[in-house]
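Model: Ready when you are.
Researcher: Fold this.
Model:
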Amino acid sequence: MSKILLVEDDAELRHLFSRVLTKSGYAVTEAENGKEALDALQNEYADLIMTDIMMPVMDGYDLVRTLRDSGDQTPILMITAKDAFDDMQRGFVSGTDDYMIKPINLNEMILRVGALLRRAEMNNEHRLIIGSTVLENDSLTVTAGKESIILPQKEFMLLYKMAAFPGKIFTRQQLMDEIWGYENDTDTHTVDVHIGRLREKFRDNPDFTIVTMRGLGYKVVKSAGGSQ
């Protein structure tokens, strides 16, 4: 189930959008302004952000700019009563992905949300997300909260492979064949060494645990907070 962060200071409109999105199968978190939205993102991941522009405390422009400046590339749909080209241009320049003008056609809103999520999924083929932990294949980077770590290639590939199939048991030989190659004559004990290093690095990770299945192999298990 995709998670949407809905940022709108008009309570009646916010609740209407939330009901429609929930009926369409999305999990919705509500926020009244940009600051509340940033606070919410400290605690949970969002697959998409819908935000108004004109809000107290922190407006939509500042919210989007803050997210993009921090490297957050979550898809953003900006919703506003403003219809001037300059306002739309400012929204896209700040980093928004799509733009809708009030009054909102609710059916169109759902179509746009679905399109943005599909586009993001295509762009994220080399990204794996477990709760608030993000594994970036292209950079061998694992980001959990505000901390990022670049792993050696074999360690990253091991973690990525198991995390892509949470709960599935992989034997040492399967992991050797997958990561080191079928023709490699390295001892399978190498897998144990790499798993040990991964365990040490992610022992405090709140989203997953690497579990040893005695006599069988290893698996990654999502913690309750790591479910999506």
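Researcher: Now this one.
Model:
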Amino acid sequence: MYGIFMEIWVILKLYAGTGFFVGLFLAALIYLAICEKEMHKKILLVFVPAVLFVIFMLPISRIVFVAVMDDGETYYRILWMIPMGVVIAYATCKLFAEYRRVGLIISTIVVIASGSLVYNSSNVTKAENAYHLPQTAIDIVDSIYPEGSTGKERVAFPASLVHYVRQYNTNILMPYGREMVVTQWYYYNAVYEAMEKAETISCEDLLTATRETKCKYIVLHETRAIDGDLTEYGLKLVDTIDGYQIFYDSSVEY
């Protein structure tokens, strides 16, 4: 049991990052446990989160989770059920309402102590459009599925674009999705193998896979190594957008 508990502890530390946010949550939880007088709010914002956190930390919970889900990698998702942000926000508002000066001082200290401005991070980029998605992905989808189109289109996209396509247009179907992009999941997909795994794409292997999965379009970046010209196999190059070539396969019928 001790070994399992230490596994949970490691998962919690990885989830918590620097620990600042979780520490803030625990402080808010203690504050509300002492100062919140309305029982229905206390049950929702104190008792339920506390019980969920205790359940997460129990070794027996991890044993049952792994046995039922057959997957220990996603155990951390139990923490998603704990409304940490809501608890922190409510506790802060309550502190302001009751002790405005104290609340202002504490909030200022928390903001200063929380670190640097997140928008200065190299991982944050300015949104290119209202969808907060790369404009290239949007332009490619619009080229394949222009305004006024109906029905569905099945398209083989590079893994680098898969995340964005589905967020923008659900009428675009793909032979593989996020399950292939996440490295710790070991699924097999013939199109993914042909497009991403091979150092040099084999035209024959790619077309065999895309035609079996009824992909009418194939999107490849022009820098991707390929052993031939897809147009010589009956495909038509219909557009090139920011280096991505869009091929149409007229032999595919839905």
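Researcher: Key takeaway?
Model: The mean pLDDT is 88.
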